[in-house]
Design a protein that fits this description.
4 helices; flat; 6% helix; ten-stranded antiparallel sheet; 5 domains; mainly beta
């Protein structure tokens, strides 16, 4: 061999006075140490058959021939390992790790590139020079920050954070032209979000501020609307008015040769704001909700707006409602039928006044009364002080009124018991979700199970062992069942063995019977034959009403019985299967309500879910079983206390603040009515204004000005429907 392995350096011939020994040794060291490329940096045991010249970076804790050589470069030469002790500044490339490392005098450290990471760098310039102020400097036509996909172990998100030391410091982004700043946004000298602009890079003007607490936008320099259109004088009433330039202007200047009307404006797009200014001598009436124009071009003011000379209206287009609304106006109608307030009072200002009255009543825990107007926030100790007419109201839960100032629909009073059996696997307790919150006791073998469930994540397991049941304390509502009663539930039968006491054919799934004694009123469930049955003790014998068909095992089945008068009807999966009149009457022994066991002689082997008992007839014929958990919210009627007016009135409007978490549909799930004659006659009032409100998830809805039977006493009535749980935080009523 005449050349070195890596660099190809020639050796001195052996005949040169033995100098070749020392020189060749030096060449080997040079060959191993210069331009180092190692096979691996983490291998702790020397390989069995290394290639000639193969090099490795020895890790800490290496064994065998590498023992005690941590951080050295091990090189396989002439069938032996040579170890080179690194000096500060030595660099290596690891083929296995695709990583470059440098020795800092005490340890090997990663360098940029490959799979390595970069430690702390005081300055970094990319195609640019970094300095003490601009410690990161980048010169590029574009920059990309890309999120790591979730499939690659990332979150899919990309967030850039600019953090400052304190409130008075700056965290912002500056946009410059030739390094002279012209715009800056961020947290500039405060924690409010600001946008500033400049014409010289030195003096900045604040364009807007967004408060960090309320989210309110402030425009210190005002709002400038540009683009003025002045069409020819209107010589006739206009429908779907669309003069040249309307679609792009901010100010529409109108003039008329006489009193003229406009029933609609073209060019409405979501959020568009338009000033309509009468620059002529004749009046111009903007007709409210006129059918003369297409629906999408109409106005929704609650009344006509009549613009006299030099009068104006500020309109906003609502794309969802497809209507033009009035933000503010100045007209000569004195209010235009309640459509906007007149003389520049905007709808927003007017509604805020009504809300203020609600909040005053809440703060003072008493309704607030002014001339022909009244408001309550429901935060008081009694219904009378809250401004609630209990005689005209129903299904109201006032438990949060005194503390939080709102009322909600109560739970359904006809649901006597509702067991959902939601819980952790093996739990031996559950909650009655009905308004009565009855106690439930578990026997030794019964427990919550996640093995089977119809809804939620669990059900009740009654495994057929003795004792195996749950019970609810004695209650008269569960004895003779009254004139109307419904029991319905979902059940998953494993088998019917032991499901009944065969000598008396008493079904065990649910009933009023003593789980450990002989007292018996009634029972409902499967017989050992698999038929569904209802049985009862009439004072002398057990009577049984059974189905024609049989139940199935290994599948969730909806079963129900209905007592209507003296008739018992059975249902399997919503289909009637068995009906008969009672023979005598059901016994009324004082016994608990039990599930799954009677007298320790018969137990079911099943899972139960969504058990509901009701004191009403839920089903009067075949039905489709519910596909989700039962709703327990009752439909509410909330009538306010009647207020006396100072004179006869025949128009009313109401503003309601409510919680929107259950997303009620206005005029369907949430409706309003007004009365001007003390409740003798109620008029449906359409909730025509729907405004998102910044206080939590609350929403403000307002009725239109509504004609009602003339009188001197007014009130409002709010109703919920379709079992929507809608908290009502306050109501304000005004009449004229």
């Amino acid at each position: 061999m005449t050349d070195t392995t890596h660099l190809g350096l020639p050796f001195i011939d052996g005949g040169q006075a033995q100098k070749h020994v020392t020189h060749n040794e030096a060449l080997r060291i040079l060959d191993a140490a210069i331009q180092i490329g190692v096979e691996n940096t983490t291998l702790a045991t020397p390989p069995d058959s290394p290639a000639a010249g193969a090099r490795y970076l020895v890790p800490a804790g290496a064994s065998g021939a590498w023992s005690g050589q941590a951080d050295a470069i091990a090189c396989w030469e002439d069938s032996a390992w040579r170890f080179l002790v690194p000096k500060m500044g030595w660099c290596v490339w690891s083929a296995a790790d695709e990583m470059q490392l440098v020795f800092d005098g005490s340890e090997w450290r990663n360098m940029p590139g490959g799979g390595g990471t970069l430690g702390t760098i005081t300055k970094l310039g990319i195609n640019a020079a970094a300095d003490s102020d601009n410690r990161l400097s980048v010169c590029s036509n574009a920059a990309l920050f890309r999120a790591i996909d979730a499939a690659d172990g990332g979150t899919g998100d990309m967030r850039i954070q600019i953090s400052k030391e304190g409130t008075d410091n700056v965290a912002s982004v500056v946009f410059s032209d030739a390094f002279s700043g012209y715009a800056e946004f961020g947290l500039i000298g405060s924690d409010a979000f600001k946008l500033k602009v400049s014409n010289d890079g030195a003096s900045f003007t604040e364009a807007f501020t967004i408060d960090q607490v309320s989210g309110k936008l402030t425009l210190p320099r005002g709002l400038a609307l540009s683009g003025v259109v002045s069409p020819a004088t209107i010589a006739a009433d206009q429908d779907d008015y669309d003069p040249a330039g309307l679609s792009a202007c901010s100010v529409l200047q109108l003039s008329a040769d006489a009193a003229r009307a406009v029933s609609g404006l073209a060019g409405g797009t979501e959020g568009r704001v338009l000033i309509v200014l009468n620059v002529g001598s004749g009046t111009v009436t903007l007709r409210d909700d006129s059918v003369s124009s297409a629906a999408a071009n109409r106005f929704a003011f609650g009344g006509d707006i009549v613009l006299g000379p030099k009068h104006a209206a500020l309109l906003r287009y609502d794309g969802t409602a497809a209507r033009w609304f009035a933000i503010a106006r100045r007209d000569n109608t004195g209010g235009g039928g309640g459509g906007g307030g007149g003389d520049g009072l905007s709808d927003t200002d007017r509604r805020n006044i009504l809300l203020d009255r609600i909040y005053q009543s809440k703060a003072l825990a008493a309704p607030r009364r002014v001339i022909n107007a009244w408001a309550t926030g429901f935060k008081a100790a009694t219904d009378a002080d809250r401004g609630i007419n209990t005689g005209a109201s129903s299904n109201i839960d006032v438990s949060n009124a005194a503390s939080a100032g709102y009322v909600t629909p109560d739970k359904d009073p006809n649901t006597l018991l509702l067991l959902r059996f939601n819980g952790t696997n093996g739990a031996t307790s559950t909650t009655d979700s009905s308004k009565y919150a009855r106690a439930v006791s578990f026997s030794v073998s019964s427990a919550i199970s996640t093995t089977q469930k119809k809804f939620g994540a669990s059900s009740l397991s009654i495994p057929g062992a003795s004792p195996s049941y749950i019970s609810v304390p004695t209650d008269a509502a569960f004895t003779n069942l009254g004139s109307s009663f419904t029991a319905d539930l979902w059940v998953y039968f494993n088998s019917f063995t032991g499901a009944s006491q065969t000598s008396t054919s008493i079904p065990m799934t649910i009933g009023a019977f003593n789980p450990t004694g002989s007292d018996y009123d009634w029972g409902f469930g499967p017989l050992s034959s698999g038929k569904l049955a209802f049985s009862y003790w009439n004072g002398s014998a057990v009577q049984t009403i059974s189905s024609t068909g049989t139940l199935s095992t290994g599948v969730w089945t909806h079963i129900a019985f209905v007592k209507s008068g003296s008739t018992i009807t059975l249902y399997i999966n919503g289909v009637q299967d068995g009906s008969a009149s009672l023979v005598g009457s059901i016994a009324t022994t004082v016994v608990p309500l039990s599930f799954g066991n009677w007298n320790n002689t018969g137990q079911i082997n099943a899972y139960l879910d969504e058990v509901r008992l009701s004191n009403v007839v839920r089903y009067a014929g075949n039905f489709t079983p519910a596909s989700s958990e039962y709703s327990i919210t009752a439909n509410m009627t909330l009538a306010t206390a009647v207020q006396t007016t100072d004179s006869n009135v025949n128009n009313a409007r109401a503003l309601i603040e409510f919680g929107n978490s259950d997303a009620p549909t206005l005029n369907t799930d949430l409706t309003a009515e007004v009365t001007c004659d003390g409740g003798t006659n109620w008029a449906a009032a359409t909730l025509s204004v729907f405004t998102a409100y910044s206080q939590g998830s609350r929403t403000v809805a307002e009725t239109a000005d509504t004609a009602c039977t003339s009188g001197t006493s007014f009130a409002v009535r709010i109703k919920t429907a379709n079992a929507k749980s809608v908290p009502i935080y306050g109501v304000s009523v005004a009449v004229h």
